[in-house]
């Protein structure tokens, strides 16, 4: 219990530090919005699931070499971070190009459109909280994609001698599979970052993605330290999947309403 409390406190401290850094760059309103969006992305069940598949594969191959699990997990997280920063940069570039062709009044309308999108994504997460999979779909990786995702996730680990290299490549490829369940908050964040100068936008983009990958880092450290097994964490994820959708839905819906009414 004390260990879990310490881990939670450490995670909160890191998020608070990153949020404080974003306040210095963009101000309280924008920083709080971006932090909320990053947290909604971070608790998404998809990202946690793919890391658990990776760690399970590594532990199956190297059951007695926990250090390999640590470095492979961190390499995977680094790949996800780098890939998402690159995708975010392209997103901001595209939105910056669009904002240069519209007036400030039209851009305010564009931000409200992002707010409506966030509200819709929030409602879809509420749907999966109330009845997971209702309507034949979930706000996660599509069921039809999952066999391919697992293959692309695990193949590099067996193909390359270095588990670290294989994990990095797996993280870079799997990022594309994660987009359907993580793109919602990211698209809204890109719309918020578009008016900022490139140095500020890139700094905020990096902070956003550091918050996004924080749970993955925590899971890797917990498994490496022997505080919990992959099976226990997987069980917790399955038991908590509806609650995770509720948390993500609440954040997205609240921020979406704030964007629509012009509070942020």
From TrEMBL:
It comes from the Archaea. The keyword Transmembrane helix applies. The chain crosses the membrane at residues 37-59, 71-93, 113-139, 160-180, 200-224, 244-263. Keywords: Membrane, Transmembrane, Transmembrane helix. The lineage of its organism: Archaea, Methanobacteriati, Methanobacteriota, Stenosarchaea group, Halobacteria. Pfam families: SfLAP. The keyword Transmembrane helix applies. This is GAP family protein.
